[in-house]
Write a structure and sequence with these properties.
heterodimer, A: 1221 residues, alpha/beta, seven-stranded mixed beta sheet, 39 helices, 48 strands, 18% strand, globular, B: 250 residues, alpha+beta, four-stranded mixed beta sheet, two-stranded antiparallel ribbon, 7 helices, 10 strands
């Protein structure tokens, strides 16, 4: 292949001319006189390395970092355009804290309006008028209002005995995390340190009303994958994509959204080792490069994926292959269950799937044949087919179902856990993987840790602490604990033996993390007194807030309907443009009494703010950032923020300090008067109480540490980075406490030697059987979670793909591992990942013999062994500050014998770095890591709406499925207007949706396997009857079927069928199926890109992609103004008439798909009131509530020119004249 | 030593990093563009945009979306250089053709002479601007700015004969190696996927025979550099004559 890099050295300097050309005002930047500063790209999640050429605080040029294996010196247009984001270049950047001086709009007005122009005319009257203030004044203002709102909401930490949530006669102390009146939204542009601190702040406030962009982009990926495989992340890395044999891009468009990720794709495609298959409702830049492309109807991905399985089972007969039988053992189903599953798949034959998706039968066959024949099971694990997706799969009411279907395809085809195979959800924002991992999320704590929901869980936790903080294998829970946590135990009196199943493993992991939080955050979770966990008179105290909070979709209900949320603190988010059914967001933000926004521009959301705080772009701060494939890289500061703008971390911590100082942050433990923990364990034989040490309880938030910069000296991200390593097990291992070195900073792209950990796989000595190119993992470039594993679930690569084995010696007593590994030579079959050992300070393999599903959540701990030794995490921490700043813990352990015990220093046992801990993963743990091929999302029996509902798996449901469908279909008949009443009728009759009454009980499908469900707004009545909308399973969505009294309008906000839409549609319009998406040139809400002159030049105005035959019917030409409407609102944009949009035949009827890019709004430069999200519905995925913005009904017609509003009066300077460069 | 840059449409994903990289390196101002019906923006080369990616849909039952990079072709025998009365238009040993700004008098002979419609006259400065092949970067041992940026190696750069040999040995069809009237170019187009379509008007539509435009004059600089003033005067007269003639022909 011809490569620029291969030819570049040909232009050796020696050959260059002496003569300098004079090009006048053109070119000739003297880069030799600049300082190079490296950073990581601020736009998408590929994680490209950048080199900025700077002079003082000015930035002259930017190039790709040639050392970085993710981009190998290359950049896309956004990466290049980065230079226009700096304060020195961009006059629109915010420079000072500001307080609003004029009134805000009346929230009720928005709810009445349906026309974008009309809304804008109203909104314009309330354009904010700002007063510049100091940081001190801004914080004082926020603190005062905050206090008022807290008072108004009567947030309380003390709860009396109620027998349900609180079972203590002495009362319970905890905050209800879903009651806190101030919501937090903190965007995915934040660095890991910022994301962790903002979630930590919310925990200290006592709030789980916190969420971020990830809810709207990949929450369904996380829920779908984590429940199936262990983690909700990309399993391959971007460089690894080059080894793929068939790459199916379904619901993604990486050439637009992740351009540099296409580098290995294009290379391998040209080499002939990769076939690119794209299925999409829009023919985008990726499709332009496809070997095979098909248009499909949005919202039909499960059907399409099931056809691949149909082909695999019924034509290729993969279940007869040895490789299949072997691989399926790594999952939770046996061959009998596979046969049951096959019955479900059988329904999705080519004709049926063609009818649903609109993809012609012959094309379906071609795709399936190519995909299956190149899969792991079909090639004996030598070649692999892989799936990439983004919002096309996730933003559906069936989002989790789509992702589950993709995961099932990969499990059935043995495509996961190998180089060149896997699942690749490309994340959107540069650090959305990291902000998700840090869990700026309403339903989990940092590292995907469970939120407690009753006092019994806290008692069980306290009991676990008394047993010496054990792993699941050394845990002997009492009967009460087994009951409280739903563990499987066989008990003889109160002596129980625990079945170490996934539930037990998960609870021990959650508990270990709760302990990490306590020790690092200076909080307390447990009982008072500590040694009587089940005594009904002991107080239950939890500084971890209870209950799942409001999220980014449901917060509008929290504000407008429930009246719980009264204020909002936003960092780097622009929900006014990004959230579905924008007018409800506008109404919510208007209604809130305190809106605080930290951002870099005056965004659309800023129009609703009371306080606007100037933040910094990524290149103006430093910290770690996790790219889409889980690699942590360190992003350095390139320039200082403009004016008085500050890094977001600084803003957070300073705000926290002010709130704490004003008495606003008060822990439940403080309320309970508990200011120290007696860290106690109970002797397993003598039952003697052993107090190991005392630790003061005081929230820890001190990150001052010397730095060359003043702001970092006050709040130093490097200290937070260390805290994350200690507090979040998922990220544990990213800091080398032995050498006090952040591993995210590593920049070594060279191969490892074969003798190092995972050396064989990363040495380049092995050639991938598909590409015949050297295999590389880049293990020394940054760090990757978990435990520096680069390919998730990589258990078999060495053994199956390369027919090799490797070994590792654990000489007796050398490493901090348990007996099962200590003193043994162990076989290695895959990628082990690595841990800095607390005895040697060197790397040792983590997962032995390789990395299996769920690993990283299941663990063993060497320092607590039942009947022998008991140790707090890190050997105990009395002072978080000492831990973070000096890397010191107490390092003590209790050695147990039958009659007594001895408290000793871990150092006496050869441990030099106790903060590195002693977790290890032996074959017994690895064996437990089974993928959940089958995974019910609704389980057990419960009372819903007064009816007893039993959730049943496909195995049982299949007997009732067809009767449910026929009962529902006959209710609807042929009248689209019957659809809604029938859904209502069924829910009222059975209590639950997708359910049927039998023998006095309601049986409801558990969704253990996905199936095709029509979107909440379906264009086909026939299909909506046969594959009913699942949306109405979710209580939040039922708001649109049973509208609340305060918002009766919601009853008309969703058009379940075309019939319902047509009632609102103008006569001269045509119905369409709509999707929204962003563009290569523009970033999400456009707040960053529309204010970037280079990007706005390429695509300045809002438009919609319209299929050519539809445009012809309506007399629409490119450039015309069109009205696009939905049951929510209507907007006006320009028409781009194109053959790149489809006319589909769906169940015998023509369906047109129209696509609207959504990065446009009414603030900043290049603005329009026609926010695409005014059209989108906020019906959510039934599991994660991600909105269905990738398929909804609407109409289109030609509109008068004057309806189109586009302005760019905020002129950006002429780069040449103003001397930008 | 002659160099060449190559555009390989098979590999281009239309990200336009090249377009912006060019603008940043050459410090050209951003233009006030408007909606483009096909993404191409600005719609054609301008004094401030030396290179653009042109997007084109080809529809014959199935749709194709092709991307074509436009910029100066850096001809072997550049008609613009011959037409330039002041010697501002210069061809270097590397094969780059660039405008010496201090010598450009804005007569626009080059504009008329160019068979590829490349040089663009800037009203503000009264001079002509176009792609320089990044001669300044090449002489500094760097890749041209657009090539440096391209994430998918749709742009490659190297010694001209080596590049051509390599492309041929890999089975690429090349446009620009030899062309009537201009002798060949230092910007080449190469493809495996679109063989026979580089000059097909339905696809890329590159001219098979880049015709020197009617009336392009032989180099006036042959009058002698020593009489620069005269030359300029002559060129101004010629310019006036040329414009008048152009008006007539309308």
């Amino acid at each position: 292949m011809l490569g620029a890099s291969a030819l570049a050295p040909a232009i050796a300097k020696a050959e260059a001319f002496e003569e300098k050309v004079d090009l006048g005002s053109i070119g000739t930047l003297e880069l030799s006189k600049t300082v190079e500063r490296r950073s990581i790209c601020m736009w998408c999640s590929v994680g490209c390395g950048l080199i900025f050429y700077t002079k003082g605080n000015d930035v002259l040029d930017v190039e790709g970092d040639p050392d970085n294996p993710l981009n190998r010196g290359k950049l896309c247009v956004k990466g290049k355009a980065s230079i226009a984001m700096f304060g020195s270049k961009n006059p629109l950047r915010l420079k000072n804290p500001m307080i609003r001086t004029n009134p805000k709009p009346d929230y009720k007005k928005f709810i009445e309006m349906k026309d974008a122009d009309e809304m804008y005319n109203y909104l314009k009257q309330f354009k904010p008028v700002w007063k510049e203030v100091t940081w001190e004044e801004a914080f004082a203002y926020i603190s005062k209002k905050w206090k008022e709102l807290l008072k108004e909401s009567n947030v309380k930490a003390y709860h009396e005995y109620d027998g349900k949530v609180c079972d203590s006669k002495a009362g319970c102390y905890f905050y209800e995390g879903n009651k806190y009146p101030i919501m937090i939204m903190a965007g995915a542009k934040l660095l890991n340190e910022e994301a962790y601190v903002i979630r930590k702040m919310s925990m200290l406030f006592g709030s789980n009303n916190i969420d971020h962009d990830a809810r709207r982009c990949h929450s369904s990926t996380v829920a779908g994958l984590a429940a199936t495989l262990g983690f909700g992340a990309q399993t391959q890395s971007f460089p690894d994509v080059g080894y793929i044999a068939v790459y199916l891009i379904l619901g993604g468009n990486p050439a637009d959204a992740h351009p540099v990720s296409m580098k290995p794709v294009i290379e391998s495609k040209e080499r002939g080792t990769l076939k690119l298959v794209v299925v999409d409702p829009k023919f985008g830049r990726t499709a332009a490069k496809a070997n095979l492309f098909a248009f499909h109807r949005p919202g039909t991905d499960v059907a399409l994926l099931y056809y691949i399985l149909h082909y695999a089972f019924y034509e290729k007969k993969i279940d007869q292959l040895e490789a299949f039988k072997e691989y399926i053992k790594r999952t939770n189903v046996d061959m009998e269950e596979i046969n049951e599953f096959k019955e479900l798949v059988k329904r999705y034959d080519a004709n049926e799937v063609s009818k649903i998706t609109g993809v012609p039968v012959d094309k379906l066959k071609k795709i399936a044949e190519l995909y299956v024949n190149n899969s792991g099971v079909a090639t004996n694990f030598k070649r692999f087919s892989s799936i990439e997706w983004a919002m096309g799969l996730t933003q559906h009411t069936t989002g989790v179902q789509n992702i589950r279907a993709a995961a099932i395809v990969q499990l059935a085809l043995g495509n996961m856990g190998f180089p060149g195979g896997g699942l690749n959800p490309y994340r959107g924002h540069n650090n959305v993987q990291g902000t998700t991992d840090m869990c700026i999320l309403a339903h989990v704590f940092p590292g995907y840790i469970k939120i407690p929901s009753n006092s019994k869980q806290i008692r069980a936790y306290q009991e676990w602490k008394l047993q010496g903080f054990p792993d699941a294998f050394n845990w002997k829970p009492s009967q009460s604990a087994c009951k409280a946590l739903g563990l499987k135990c066989s008990c003889n009196g109160n002596e129980c033996s625990l079945e170490v199943n996934s539930k037990a493993l998960l609870w021990s992991w959650w508990f270990m993390n709760w302990r990490r939080f306590e020790l690092t955050m200076g909080t307390f979770v447990g009982t008072e007194p500590e040694d009587r966990p089940w005594d009904e008179n002991s107080k239950v105290i939890s500084d971890l807030p209870f209950f799942v909070g409001y999220n980014e979709i449901t917060y509008v209900k929290g504000t407008l309907v429930d009246d719980v949320l009264k204020g909002i603190l936003l960092f780097a988010e622009n929900p006014a443009v990004s959230d579905p059914n924008a007018k409800l967001t506008w109404a919510s933000l208007s209604k809130m009494k305190l809106v605080v926004l930290a951002d870099v521009f005056e965004t659309e959301t800023a129009w609703f703010a009371d306080v606007l705080l100037p933040g910094a772009i990524q290149y103006e701060k430093e910290g770690s950032i996790t790219n889409s494939n889980r690699w942590l890289q360190w992003s350095d500061r390139v320039a200082l923020p403009p004016g008085d703008a500050k890094p977001d971390l600084w803003i957070m911590v300073k705000l926290y300090e002010r709130l704490r100082q004003d008495g606003i942050v008060r822990l439940p433990s403080e309320e309970a008067g508990k200011n120290k923990e007696e860290v106690t364990v109970i002797h397993p034989y003598t039952k003697e109480k052993i107090v190991m040490y005392e630790r003061p309880i005081e929230p820890y938030m001190d990150y001052s540490y010397p730095s060359q910069w003043e702001d970092f000296s006050e709040v130093n991200p490097r200290i937070v980075y260390r805290e994350i390593d200690a507090a979040v097990d998922l990220y544990n291992g990213m800091y080398d406490w032995a050498h006090m070195y952040p591993l995210a900073k590593r920049r070594v792209a060279q191969p490892r030697s074969v003798k190092e950990v995972d050396g064989l796989l990363d040495s380049g000595a092995l050639k991938h059987p598909n590409t015949n190119t050297p295999l590389r993992l880049y293990k020394d470039w940054g760090w990757s979670w978990p435990k520096n594993v680069r390919i998730l679930y990589n258990l078999w690569t060495l053994e199956k793909t390369f027919g090799m084995e490797d070994y590792w010696e654990f000489p007796k007593g050398k490493y901090a591992v348990g007996e099962s590994l200590d003193g043994r030579r162990v076989r290695i079959t895959g990628e082990t990942g690595e841990i800095v050992d607390s005895k040697t300070g060197t790397l040792r393999p983590a997962f032995v013999p390789g990395h299996n599903f769920y690993l990283g959540k299941f663990y063993k701990r060497a320092w607590t062994v039942y009947g022998k030794q008991m140790t707090d995490l890190f050997g105990g921490v009395a002072n978080p500050s000492e831990l973070m700043k000096e890397g010191k813990s107490l390092g003590i352990t209790v050695l147990i014998n039958k009659n007594g015990y001895k408290v000793v220093k871990l150092s006496e046992l050869g441990v030099r770095y106790p903060v590195q801990e002693s977790v290890y993963y032996d074959p017994e743990v690895v064996e437990k890591g089974k993928a959940l091929f089958k995974k019910p999302y609704f389980v057990g029996t419960k009372v819903v709406e007064g009816k007893k509902v039993k959730y049943v798996d496909w195995k049982e449901w299949k007997e009732y499925h067809d009767s449910f469908i026929s009962e529902f279909s006959s209710c609807v008949g042929n009248d689209p207007n019957n659809y809604r009443p029938c859904v209502k009728k069924f829910i009222e009759k059975y209590g639950e949706w997708f359910a049927i009454g039998r023998k006095g009980v309601t049986l409801a499908y558990s969704l253990d396997y996905p199936m095709h469900f029509e979107p909440a707004e379906s264009p086909s009545l026939e299909l909506a009857k046969k594959y009913p909308q699942i949306a109405w399973r979710k209580p939040f969505n039922k708001m649109f079927i049973f509208p609340p009294k305060v918002l009766p309008q919601l009853g008309a906000e969703i058009a379940l069928t075309l019939g319902e839409l047509e009632r609102q549609m103008p006569k001269d319009a045509k119905p369409i199926v709509l999707t929204t998406n962003r563009l290569e040139e523009h970033w999400h809400t456009g707040a960053l890109s529309r204010n970037n002159p280079y990007l706005a030049e390429l695509v300045p105005e809002p438009f919609a992609h319209i299929p050519e035959p539809l445009a012809k019917e309506l007399g629409i030409k490119s450039g015309d103004v069109v009205e696009i409407g939905s049951a929510r609102a209507k907007i006006y944009v320009r028409a781009m008439v194109t053959h790149r949009m489809p006319k589909l035949d769906i169940a015998g009827e023509t369906v047109y798909n129209v696509n609207i890019p959504w990065p446009f709004g009414y603030a900043g430069s290049h603005r329009t009131p026609s926010v695409a999200n005014l059209l989108t519905p906020e019906v959510g995925d039934i599991i994660t509530s991600i909105q269905e913005s990738k398929v909804f009904l609407g109409w289109i017609r030609k509109a008068p020119k004057d309806k189109y509003v586009f302005e760019r009066e905020a002129e950006l300077p002429n780069i040449r004249e103003e001397g930008w460069l | 030593m002659e160099y060449a840059s190559v555009f390989i449409p098979d590999r281009c994903i239309g990200c336009r990093a090249c377009q912006t990289a060019c603008k940043i390196w050459n410090q050209r101002p951003v233009e006030k563009t408007s909606f483009s019906p096909d993404f191409t923006n600005p719609p054609s080369l301008t004094p401030d945009s030396f290179t653009i990616i042109k997007f084109k849909e080809v529809f014959d039952g199935e749709v194709k979306w092709i991307m074509l990079k436009e910029q100066c072709m850096h001809c072997n025998d550049p008609p613009c250089v011959s037409a330039c009365p002041t010697g501002a238009m210069t061809k270097t040993e590397e094969g780059a053709v660039y405008v010496r700004p201090e010598k450009c008098i804005g007569c626009q002979y080059c504009v008329e002479a160019c068979p590829f419609d490349v040089p663009k006259y800037d009203e503000g400065s009264g001079k002509v601007y176009k792609c320089t092949m990044c001669i300044d970067r090449i002489r500094d041992g760097k890749l041209p700015a657009c090539v440096e940026a391209c994430p998918t190696q749709a742009l490659v750069f190297g010694k001209k004969d080596e590049v051509i040999q390599k492309l041929k040995s890999e089975g690429f069809e090349i446009y620009g190696e030899r062309l009537p009237n201009v002798g060949g170019t230092h910007w080449l187009y190469a493809t495996k996927e679109f063989k026979g379509k580089l000059t097909d008007p339905k696809y890329f539509g590159l001219p098979e025979s880049p015709a020197a435009k009617e009336g392009a004059l032989p180099a006036i600089r042959e009058f002698g550099v020593g009489v620069a003033g005269l030359a300029i005067l002559a060129s101004l007269l010629h310019a006036a004559y040329w414009r008048a003639k152009k008006e007539e022909s309308k």
